[in-house]
Specification:
elongated; 65% helix; 24 helices; mainly alpha; 517 residues
Protein backbone atom coordinates (compact mmCIF):
# COMPACT_ATOMS: atom_id res chain seq x y z
CA UNK A 1 0.00 0.00 0.00
CA UNK A 2 2.84 2.36 0.91
CA UNK A 3 4.66 1.54 -2.35
CA UNK A 4 1.50 2.28 -4.33
CA UNK A 5 1.21 5.65 -2.61
CA UNK A 6 4.84 6.52 -3.44
CA UNK A 7 4.27 5.50 -7.04
CA UNK A 8 1.13 7.64 -7.23
CA UNK A 9 3.00 10.65 -5.85
CA UNK A 10 5.86 10.15 -8.33
CA UNK A 11 3.40 10.02 -11.23
CA UNK A 12 1.73 13.26 -10.11
CA UNK A 13 4.65 14.95 -8.39
CA UNK A 14 3.72 18.52 -9.34
CA UNK A 15 0.17 18.00 -8.12
CA UNK A 16 1.30 16.70 -4.73
CA UNK A 17 4.11 19.24 -4.47
CA UNK A 18 1.64 22.12 -4.77
CA UNK A 19 -0.86 20.31 -2.52
CA UNK A 20 1.72 19.83 0.26
CA UNK A 21 2.86 23.43 -0.19
CA UNK A 22 -0.72 24.73 0.25
CA UNK A 23 -1.32 22.57 3.33
CA UNK A 24 2.03 23.58 4.83
CA UNK A 25 1.35 27.28 4.14
CA UNK A 26 -2.11 27.08 5.71
CA UNK A 27 -0.74 25.34 8.79
CA UNK A 28 2.15 27.80 9.04
CA UNK A 29 -0.15 30.86 8.91
CA UNK A 30 -2.37 29.48 11.65
CA UNK A 31 0.52 28.42 13.85
CA UNK A 32 2.39 31.70 13.31
CA UNK A 33 -0.53 33.85 14.45
CA UNK A 34 -1.27 31.46 17.32
CA UNK A 35 2.29 31.77 18.66
CA UNK A 36 2.15 35.58 18.58
CA UNK A 37 -0.15 35.32 21.62
CA UNK A 38 -2.01 38.50 20.73
CA UNK A 39 -4.41 39.69 23.40
CA UNK A 40 -7.93 38.40 23.78
CA UNK A 41 -10.52 40.39 21.87
CA UNK A 42 -13.90 41.43 23.25
CA UNK A 43 -15.85 38.23 22.48
CA UNK A 44 -12.94 36.02 23.48
CA UNK A 45 -12.64 37.83 26.80
CA UNK A 46 -16.33 37.45 27.50
CA UNK A 47 -16.27 33.70 26.85
CA UNK A 48 -13.01 33.25 28.81
CA UNK A 49 -14.57 34.93 31.86
CA UNK A 50 -17.32 32.30 31.88
CA UNK A 51 -14.68 29.55 32.03
CA UNK A 52 -12.84 31.47 34.74
CA UNK A 53 -15.90 32.10 36.91
CA UNK A 54 -17.39 28.61 36.64
CA UNK A 55 -14.79 26.75 38.67
CA UNK A 56 -15.90 23.15 38.16
CA UNK A 57 -16.96 21.09 35.15
CA UNK A 58 -20.35 20.58 36.79
CA UNK A 59 -20.91 24.35 36.95
CA UNK A 60 -19.67 24.80 33.40
CA UNK A 61 -22.04 22.17 32.01
CA UNK A 62 -25.17 22.81 34.06
CA UNK A 63 -24.97 26.57 34.71
CA UNK A 64 -25.88 29.07 31.96
CA UNK A 65 -23.10 31.34 30.71
CA UNK A 66 -24.12 34.42 32.68
CA UNK A 67 -21.35 36.77 31.60
CA UNK A 68 -21.76 39.08 28.60
CA UNK A 69 -24.52 37.29 26.64
CA UNK A 70 -22.24 34.47 25.56
CA UNK A 71 -23.12 31.09 24.08
CA UNK A 72 -20.95 28.14 23.11
CA UNK A 73 -21.52 24.39 22.77
CA UNK A 74 -20.96 22.37 25.94
CA UNK A 75 -18.29 20.16 24.34
CA UNK A 76 -16.29 23.17 23.20
CA UNK A 77 -16.41 24.68 26.70
CA UNK A 78 -15.39 21.42 28.39
CA UNK A 79 -12.36 20.89 26.11
CA UNK A 80 -11.36 24.55 26.62
CA UNK A 81 -11.71 24.11 30.39
CA UNK A 82 -9.39 21.09 30.22
CA UNK A 83 -6.71 23.12 28.44
CA UNK A 84 -7.15 26.04 30.86
CA UNK A 85 -6.78 23.69 33.85
CA UNK A 86 -3.51 22.40 32.41
CA UNK A 87 -1.98 25.64 31.09
CA UNK A 88 -3.95 28.36 32.93
CA UNK A 89 -6.38 31.01 31.67
CA UNK A 90 -4.38 32.61 28.88
CA UNK A 91 -4.51 33.24 25.14
CA UNK A 92 -2.49 30.20 24.10
CA UNK A 93 -4.32 27.69 26.29
CA UNK A 94 -7.80 28.71 25.20
CA UNK A 95 -6.90 28.93 21.51
CA UNK A 96 -5.31 25.47 21.27
CA UNK A 97 -8.55 23.66 20.40
CA UNK A 98 -9.67 26.15 17.69
CA UNK A 99 -6.13 26.17 16.24
CA UNK A 100 -5.90 22.38 16.04
CA UNK A 101 -9.39 22.27 14.50
CA UNK A 102 -8.35 24.85 11.91
CA UNK A 103 -5.22 22.95 10.85
CA UNK A 104 -7.04 19.60 10.76
CA UNK A 105 -9.75 21.17 8.60
CA UNK A 106 -7.25 21.82 5.78
CA UNK A 107 -6.65 18.07 5.43
CA UNK A 108 -10.37 17.35 5.72
CA UNK A 109 -11.19 19.87 3.02
CA UNK A 110 -8.93 18.08 0.54
CA UNK A 111 -10.72 14.74 1.07
CA UNK A 112 -14.11 16.46 0.91
CA UNK A 113 -13.45 18.61 -2.17
CA UNK A 114 -11.84 15.94 -4.36
CA UNK A 115 -15.29 14.43 -4.87
CA UNK A 116 -16.45 17.62 -6.59
CA UNK A 117 -13.37 19.14 -8.23
CA UNK A 118 -10.93 18.01 -10.90
CA UNK A 119 -7.21 17.97 -10.06
CA UNK A 120 -6.39 21.56 -11.08
CA UNK A 121 -9.47 23.16 -9.54
CA UNK A 122 -8.92 20.98 -6.45
CA UNK A 123 -5.43 22.42 -5.96
CA UNK A 124 -6.86 25.90 -6.42
CA UNK A 125 -9.61 25.21 -3.86
CA UNK A 126 -7.18 23.82 -1.26
CA UNK A 127 -4.94 26.86 -1.73
CA UNK A 128 -7.85 29.26 -1.18
CA UNK A 129 -8.96 27.29 1.89
CA UNK A 130 -5.42 27.33 3.30
CA UNK A 131 -4.82 31.09 2.98
CA UNK A 132 -8.30 32.63 3.17
CA UNK A 133 -8.14 35.41 5.74
CA UNK A 134 -11.36 34.47 7.49
CA UNK A 135 -10.48 30.81 7.88
CA UNK A 136 -7.02 31.65 9.18
CA UNK A 137 -8.25 34.32 11.61
CA UNK A 138 -10.99 32.22 13.18
CA UNK A 139 -8.65 29.25 13.54
CA UNK A 140 -6.80 31.21 16.21
CA UNK A 141 -9.86 32.77 17.85
CA UNK A 142 -11.34 31.54 21.12
CA UNK A 143 -14.80 30.86 19.75
CA UNK A 144 -16.17 27.64 18.21
CA UNK A 145 -16.20 28.80 14.56
CA UNK A 146 -13.23 26.71 13.40
CA UNK A 147 -14.70 23.74 15.28
CA UNK A 148 -17.92 24.29 13.28
CA UNK A 149 -15.80 24.03 10.15
CA UNK A 150 -14.12 20.82 11.29
CA UNK A 151 -17.46 19.29 12.32
CA UNK A 152 -19.01 20.15 8.94
CA UNK A 153 -16.18 18.56 6.96
CA UNK A 154 -16.07 15.51 9.26
CA UNK A 155 -19.77 14.78 8.70
CA UNK A 156 -19.48 15.19 4.92
CA UNK A 157 -16.49 12.83 4.78
CA UNK A 158 -18.18 10.33 7.10
CA UNK A 159 -21.20 10.27 4.78
CA UNK A 160 -18.97 9.65 1.77
CA UNK A 161 -17.15 6.66 3.27
CA UNK A 162 -19.82 5.06 5.46
CA UNK A 163 -23.19 5.79 3.83
CA UNK A 164 -22.27 5.01 0.21
CA UNK A 165 -22.48 1.25 0.63
CA UNK A 166 -24.83 -1.60 -0.22
CA UNK A 167 -25.28 -2.22 3.51
CA UNK A 168 -24.31 0.88 5.50
CA UNK A 169 -22.29 0.90 8.69
CA UNK A 170 -24.26 2.27 11.66
CA UNK A 171 -21.67 2.62 14.40
CA UNK A 172 -19.32 5.34 13.08
CA UNK A 173 -22.05 7.62 11.61
CA UNK A 174 -24.14 7.32 14.79
CA UNK A 175 -21.18 8.03 17.07
CA UNK A 176 -19.78 10.92 15.04
CA UNK A 177 -23.12 12.72 14.72
CA UNK A 178 -23.95 12.07 18.38
CA UNK A 179 -20.67 13.67 19.47
CA UNK A 180 -20.50 16.56 16.99
CA UNK A 181 -23.78 18.19 18.08
CA UNK A 182 -22.11 18.81 21.46
CA UNK A 183 -19.26 20.70 19.79
CA UNK A 184 -21.03 22.72 17.11
CA UNK A 185 -24.44 24.36 16.80
CA UNK A 186 -24.69 24.62 12.98
CA UNK A 187 -23.55 21.03 12.38
CA UNK A 188 -27.24 20.13 12.79
CA UNK A 189 -27.84 21.62 9.31
CA UNK A 190 -25.19 19.30 7.87
CA UNK A 191 -26.60 16.26 9.67
CA UNK A 192 -30.11 17.10 8.46
CA UNK A 193 -28.81 17.53 4.90
CA UNK A 194 -27.04 14.16 5.01
CA UNK A 195 -30.15 12.48 6.42
CA UNK A 196 -32.45 13.97 3.76
CA UNK A 197 -30.05 13.29 0.88
CA UNK A 198 -29.28 9.66 1.68
CA UNK A 199 -32.83 8.97 2.82
CA UNK A 200 -34.07 10.01 -0.61
CA UNK A 201 -31.42 7.85 -2.34
CA UNK A 202 -32.28 4.74 -0.30
CA UNK A 203 -36.00 5.32 -0.80
CA UNK A 204 -35.56 5.81 -4.54
CA UNK A 205 -33.45 2.64 -4.85
CA UNK A 206 -35.81 0.73 -2.53
CA UNK A 207 -32.96 -0.15 -0.17
CA UNK A 208 -35.18 -0.92 2.82
CA UNK A 209 -32.41 -2.14 5.12
CA UNK A 210 -30.32 0.99 4.52
CA UNK A 211 -33.38 3.19 4.98
CA UNK A 212 -34.14 1.51 8.31
CA UNK A 213 -30.52 1.83 9.44
CA UNK A 214 -30.37 5.47 8.38
CA UNK A 215 -33.59 6.13 10.31
CA UNK A 216 -31.97 4.65 13.42
CA UNK A 217 -28.83 6.76 12.89
CA UNK A 218 -30.91 9.93 12.44
CA UNK A 219 -32.92 9.07 15.56
CA UNK A 220 -29.69 8.85 17.58
CA UNK A 221 -28.56 12.19 16.13
CA UNK A 222 -31.90 13.77 16.97
CA UNK A 223 -31.94 12.55 20.58
CA UNK A 224 -28.37 13.79 21.13
CA UNK A 225 -29.24 17.12 19.51
CA UNK A 226 -32.36 17.59 21.68
CA UNK A 227 -30.42 16.85 24.87
CA UNK A 228 -27.64 19.27 23.89
CA UNK A 229 -30.28 21.86 22.96
CA UNK A 230 -31.54 21.91 26.55
CA UNK A 231 -28.21 23.43 27.61
CA UNK A 232 -28.11 25.81 24.64
CA UNK A 233 -31.71 26.93 25.20
CA UNK A 234 -31.03 28.07 28.77
CA UNK A 235 -28.40 30.48 27.39
CA UNK A 236 -30.72 31.54 24.58
CA UNK A 237 -33.59 32.39 26.94
CA UNK A 238 -31.30 34.52 29.07
CA UNK A 239 -29.99 36.58 26.14
CA UNK A 240 -32.88 36.22 23.68
CA UNK A 241 -33.54 39.96 23.32
CA UNK A 242 -29.85 40.71 22.80
CA UNK A 243 -29.53 37.85 20.28
CA UNK A 244 -32.52 38.97 18.21
CA UNK A 245 -31.45 42.62 18.32
CA UNK A 246 -27.77 42.04 17.50
CA UNK A 247 -28.44 39.71 14.55
CA UNK A 248 -31.67 41.31 13.29
CA UNK A 249 -30.23 42.13 9.84
CA UNK A 250 -29.34 38.48 9.22
CA UNK A 251 -32.80 36.97 9.60
CA UNK A 252 -34.69 36.45 6.36
CA UNK A 253 -37.53 38.99 6.11
CA UNK A 254 -41.07 37.82 5.38
CA UNK A 255 -41.81 38.27 2.56
CA UNK A 256 -38.17 38.07 1.36
CA UNK A 257 -36.82 40.77 -0.93
CA UNK A 258 -34.02 40.82 -3.50
CA UNK A 259 -31.87 43.16 -1.45
CA UNK A 260 -31.73 40.63 1.36
CA UNK A 261 -30.64 37.86 -1.03
CA UNK A 262 -27.89 40.16 -2.31
CA UNK A 263 -26.85 40.47 1.33
CA UNK A 264 -26.76 36.66 1.49
CA UNK A 265 -24.38 36.52 -1.49
CA UNK A 266 -22.29 39.26 0.07
CA UNK A 267 -22.09 37.41 3.38
CA UNK A 268 -21.17 34.09 1.79
CA UNK A 269 -18.32 35.71 -0.17
CA UNK A 270 -17.15 38.04 2.56
CA UNK A 271 -16.97 35.54 5.42
CA UNK A 272 -15.29 32.95 3.18
CA UNK A 273 -12.63 35.23 1.73
CA UNK A 274 -12.59 38.09 4.27
CA UNK A 275 -12.19 40.79 1.65
CA UNK A 276 -10.94 44.20 2.65
CA UNK A 277 -13.57 45.63 0.33
CA UNK A 278 -17.07 44.47 -0.52
CA UNK A 279 -16.98 41.50 -2.93
CA UNK A 280 -17.40 42.57 -6.53
CA UNK A 281 -20.21 41.61 -8.90
CA UNK A 282 -17.70 39.33 -10.64
CA UNK A 283 -17.24 37.47 -7.35
CA UNK A 284 -21.00 36.90 -7.11
CA UNK A 285 -21.02 35.62 -10.70
CA UNK A 286 -18.13 33.25 -9.97
CA UNK A 287 -20.07 31.82 -7.03
CA UNK A 288 -23.27 31.37 -9.06
CA UNK A 289 -21.63 30.05 -12.25
CA UNK A 290 -19.49 27.63 -10.24
CA UNK A 291 -22.59 26.39 -8.43
CA UNK A 292 -24.35 26.00 -11.79
CA UNK A 293 -21.51 23.92 -13.25
CA UNK A 294 -21.35 21.78 -10.11
CA UNK A 295 -25.09 21.07 -10.33
CA UNK A 296 -24.80 20.32 -14.06
CA UNK A 297 -21.84 17.92 -13.66
CA UNK A 298 -22.57 16.28 -10.33
CA UNK A 299 -26.35 16.47 -10.34
CA UNK A 300 -27.38 14.35 -7.31
CA UNK A 301 -24.14 14.92 -5.39
CA UNK A 302 -24.49 18.69 -5.70
CA UNK A 303 -27.77 18.52 -3.74
CA UNK A 304 -25.70 17.68 -0.67
CA UNK A 305 -23.87 21.02 -1.09
CA UNK A 306 -26.99 23.09 -1.65
CA UNK A 307 -29.13 21.59 1.14
CA UNK A 308 -27.15 23.09 4.08
CA UNK A 309 -27.53 26.57 2.57
CA UNK A 310 -31.28 26.07 2.11
CA UNK A 311 -31.75 24.73 5.65
CA UNK A 312 -29.73 27.58 7.18
CA UNK A 313 -31.84 30.09 5.23
CA UNK A 314 -34.98 28.37 6.52
CA UNK A 315 -33.69 28.63 10.09
CA UNK A 316 -33.00 32.34 9.59
CA UNK A 317 -36.57 32.74 8.31
CA UNK A 318 -37.95 31.62 11.71
CA UNK A 319 -35.24 33.58 13.58
CA UNK A 320 -33.62 30.42 14.89
CA UNK A 321 -30.18 31.01 13.32
CA UNK A 322 -28.74 34.15 11.69
CA UNK A 323 -27.53 33.83 8.11
CA UNK A 324 -24.51 36.08 8.27
CA UNK A 325 -21.02 36.92 9.42
CA UNK A 326 -18.96 34.37 11.33
CA UNK A 327 -22.00 32.20 12.11
CA UNK A 328 -22.02 30.93 8.50
CA UNK A 329 -18.29 30.21 8.39
CA UNK A 330 -19.19 26.51 8.37
CA UNK A 331 -20.53 27.02 4.81
CA UNK A 332 -17.14 28.28 3.56
CA UNK A 333 -16.00 24.89 2.13
CA UNK A 334 -19.11 24.81 -0.07
CA UNK A 335 -18.51 28.37 -1.30
CA UNK A 336 -14.86 27.61 -2.08
CA UNK A 337 -15.85 24.53 -4.10
CA UNK A 338 -18.31 26.60 -6.14
CA UNK A 339 -15.73 29.32 -6.85
CA UNK A 340 -12.91 26.87 -7.68
CA UNK A 341 -15.27 24.97 -9.97
CA UNK A 342 -15.07 27.83 -12.48
CA UNK A 343 -11.64 26.62 -13.62
CA UNK A 344 -13.31 23.56 -15.10
CA UNK A 345 -15.07 25.67 -17.71
CA UNK A 346 -11.68 25.67 -19.44
CA UNK A 347 -12.09 21.93 -20.13
CA UNK A 348 -14.75 22.78 -22.72
CA UNK A 349 -12.07 24.53 -24.82
CA UNK A 350 -9.71 21.54 -24.93
CA UNK A 351 -10.72 20.53 -28.44
CA UNK A 352 -9.95 24.04 -29.71
CA UNK A 353 -6.62 24.52 -27.90
CA UNK A 354 -4.07 21.72 -28.39
CA UNK A 355 -0.92 23.45 -27.10
CA UNK A 356 -0.32 22.62 -23.39
CA UNK A 357 1.68 25.81 -22.81
CA UNK A 358 -1.24 27.93 -24.00
CA UNK A 359 -3.66 25.83 -21.91
CA UNK A 360 -1.61 26.27 -18.74
CA UNK A 361 -1.14 29.96 -19.50
CA UNK A 362 -4.91 30.47 -19.77
CA UNK A 363 -5.38 28.44 -16.57
CA UNK A 364 -2.95 30.67 -14.68
CA UNK A 365 -4.58 33.79 -16.12
CA UNK A 366 -8.08 32.72 -15.03
CA UNK A 367 -6.75 31.68 -11.60
CA UNK A 368 -5.13 35.10 -11.27
CA UNK A 369 -8.38 36.86 -12.18
CA UNK A 370 -10.26 34.88 -9.52
CA UNK A 371 -7.56 35.48 -6.92
CA UNK A 372 -7.65 39.19 -7.77
CA UNK A 373 -11.28 39.15 -6.62
CA UNK A 374 -10.11 37.82 -3.24
CA UNK A 375 -7.91 40.58 -1.79
CA UNK A 376 -6.29 38.58 0.97
CA UNK A 377 -6.12 40.67 4.10
CA UNK A 378 -2.42 40.44 4.90
CA UNK A 379 -2.83 43.40 7.24
CA UNK A 380 -5.22 41.26 9.25
CA UNK A 381 -2.72 38.39 9.26
CA UNK A 382 0.42 40.13 10.35
CA UNK A 383 -0.60 43.48 11.80
CA UNK A 384 -3.91 43.71 13.59
CA UNK A 385 -4.08 40.15 14.90
CA UNK A 386 -0.45 39.82 15.91
CA UNK A 387 0.17 43.31 17.29
CA UNK A 388 -2.80 43.75 19.63
CA UNK A 389 -1.11 43.58 23.03
CA UNK A 390 -3.63 44.71 25.62
CA UNK A 391 -1.52 43.04 28.32
CA UNK A 392 1.17 45.71 27.80
CA UNK A 393 -1.33 48.36 28.90
CA UNK A 394 -2.31 46.30 31.95
CA UNK A 395 1.35 46.05 32.96
CA UNK A 396 1.75 49.83 32.49
CA UNK A 397 -1.16 50.43 34.87
CA UNK A 398 0.22 47.97 37.42
CA UNK A 399 3.65 49.64 37.39
CA UNK A 400 2.19 53.10 38.00
CA UNK A 401 -0.74 52.20 40.25
CA UNK A 402 -1.23 53.58 43.75
CA UNK A 403 -3.40 51.92 46.41
CA UNK A 404 -6.10 54.59 46.29
CA UNK A 405 -6.37 54.58 42.48
CA UNK A 406 -9.52 53.47 40.70
CA UNK A 407 -9.76 52.07 37.18
CA UNK A 408 -12.84 53.16 35.26
CA UNK A 409 -14.08 50.51 32.84
CA UNK A 410 -16.62 50.87 30.08
CA UNK A 411 -18.88 47.82 29.58
CA UNK A 412 -16.91 46.76 26.48
CA UNK A 413 -13.46 47.04 28.10
CA UNK A 414 -14.01 45.46 31.50
CA UNK A 415 -13.45 41.86 30.37
CA UNK A 416 -9.69 42.33 30.08
CA UNK A 417 -9.41 43.54 33.67
CA UNK A 418 -11.68 40.90 35.17
CA UNK A 419 -9.45 38.18 33.70
CA UNK A 420 -6.27 40.04 34.67
CA UNK A 421 -7.41 40.60 38.26
CA UNK A 422 -8.47 36.99 38.72
CA UNK A 423 -5.42 35.36 37.16
CA UNK A 424 -2.81 37.63 38.79
CA UNK A 425 -4.58 38.38 42.11
CA UNK A 426 -3.99 42.10 41.62
CA UNK A 427 -6.96 43.26 43.75
CA UNK A 428 -7.18 46.49 41.79
CA UNK A 429 -10.12 48.78 42.46
CA UNK A 430 -12.35 48.52 39.42
CA UNK A 431 -15.28 50.83 38.76
CA UNK A 432 -17.72 49.45 36.20
CA UNK A 433 -19.36 52.04 33.98
CA UNK A 434 -23.11 52.18 33.52
CA UNK A 435 -24.34 49.32 31.28
CA UNK A 436 -26.51 51.82 29.41
CA UNK A 437 -23.33 53.22 27.86
CA UNK A 438 -23.22 50.08 25.72
CA UNK A 439 -26.90 49.99 24.74
CA UNK A 440 -27.79 53.68 24.42
CA UNK A 441 -25.76 55.38 21.67
CA UNK A 442 -27.53 58.75 21.98
CA UNK A 443 -27.12 59.30 25.72
CA UNK A 444 -23.93 57.34 26.37
CA UNK A 445 -21.89 60.49 27.03
CA UNK A 446 -24.35 61.60 29.73
CA UNK A 447 -23.99 58.27 31.52
CA UNK A 448 -20.21 58.54 31.23
CA UNK A 449 -20.28 62.03 32.80
CA UNK A 450 -22.31 60.75 35.76
CA UNK A 451 -19.83 57.90 36.27
CA UNK A 452 -16.87 60.31 36.27
CA UNK A 453 -18.55 62.65 38.77
CA UNK A 454 -19.30 59.70 41.06
CA UNK A 455 -15.68 58.54 40.86
CA UNK A 456 -14.35 61.97 41.83
CA UNK A 457 -16.01 61.58 45.22
CA UNK A 458 -14.10 58.34 45.86
CA UNK A 459 -10.54 59.10 44.76
CA UNK A 460 -8.32 61.77 43.31
CA UNK A 461 -6.59 59.49 40.75
CA UNK A 462 -8.60 57.73 38.04
CA UNK A 463 -7.36 55.47 35.24
CA UNK A 464 -9.24 55.47 31.94
CA UNK A 465 -8.28 52.61 29.59
CA UNK A 466 -9.78 52.69 26.08
CA UNK A 467 -9.30 49.76 23.71
CA UNK A 468 -11.88 50.59 21.04
CA UNK A 469 -10.16 53.53 19.35
CA UNK A 470 -7.70 51.61 17.18
CA UNK A 471 -9.20 48.13 17.24
CA UNK A 472 -11.29 47.22 14.19
CA UNK A 473 -13.00 44.43 16.09
CA UNK A 474 -15.12 47.10 17.77
CA UNK A 475 -17.98 48.55 15.75
CA UNK A 476 -18.05 52.17 14.53
CA UNK A 477 -20.57 53.45 17.17
CA UNK A 478 -18.37 52.09 19.97
CA UNK A 479 -15.29 53.81 18.54
CA UNK A 480 -17.22 57.09 18.21
CA UNK A 481 -18.37 56.87 21.83
CA UNK A 482 -14.80 56.27 22.98
CA UNK A 483 -13.58 59.37 21.12
CA UNK A 484 -16.38 61.41 22.70
CA UNK A 485 -15.38 60.20 26.18
CA UNK A 486 -11.76 61.21 25.58
CA UNK A 487 -12.75 64.68 24.40
CA UNK A 488 -14.91 65.15 27.48
CA UNK A 489 -12.00 64.26 29.80
CA UNK A 490 -9.69 66.66 27.96
CA UNK A 491 -12.22 69.48 28.38
CA UNK A 492 -12.51 69.14 32.17
CA UNK A 493 -10.57 71.83 34.03
CA UNK A 494 -10.75 69.93 37.33
CA UNK A 495 -9.00 66.89 35.81
CA UNK A 496 -5.27 66.90 35.08
CA UNK A 497 -3.60 64.33 32.84
CA UNK A 498 -0.50 63.05 34.64
CA UNK A 499 0.39 59.79 32.83
CA UNK A 500 -0.64 58.04 29.65
CA UNK A 501 0.28 55.23 27.29
CA UNK A 502 -0.93 55.36 23.71
CA UNK A 503 -0.01 52.86 21.00
CA UNK A 504 -2.07 52.52 17.85
CA UNK A 505 -0.34 49.30 16.76
CA UNK A 506 -0.96 47.59 20.10
CA UNK A 507 -4.62 48.57 19.88
CA UNK A 508 -5.26 50.84 22.85
CA UNK A 509 -4.58 53.81 25.09
CA UNK A 510 -4.59 54.41 28.84
CA UNK A 511 -4.88 57.77 30.65
CA UNK A 512 -4.33 58.59 34.32
CA UNK A 513 -6.16 61.72 35.46
CA UNK A 514 -5.88 63.45 38.82
CA UNK A 515 -8.71 65.50 40.25
CA UNK A 516 -7.67 69.12 40.83
CA UNK A 517 -9.53 71.16 43.45
Amino acid sequence: MFKELIKKIEQNKYFYLFLFFSIFLGGFLRLYIFLQQYSFEGDECSLAINILKQKTFHELIFTPLYWFNQAAPVGFMVISKCFSNIFGINELALRIFPMLSGIFSIFLFYFFAKDYLSSKSLLFGVFIFAVSGSLVSYSVFFKPYSVDLMATLSIFIMAKYFLNKEIINMFIPSLLGLVMVWFSYPVVFILASVGIYYGFIYFNKKQKINLLRLSTICYIWLVSFLISSVFAYSNYLRSKDYFLSYWKDYFMPIPPDWNWFLLVLNQLCNITFQSVIHPSILMYLLLLTGAGLCIFQKKGKSVLLVLPIILTLAASCIKAYPFGDRLILFLAPIVIIFVAKNLEYLNYFDKFIKNNIIKNGILLLVSGIILFQIPFNTKNYFHIRTNIKINDFLVFIEQNMEKTDYIYLTPYDKGYFIIDNETHNRNEKLYYGDKKIYNDNKNSLDYFKKDVEALKTRTSRIWFPFFATYNNDYDAPTRKKTIAFKKYLESQKDLKLIKYMKDEQKGGEVYLYQAVK
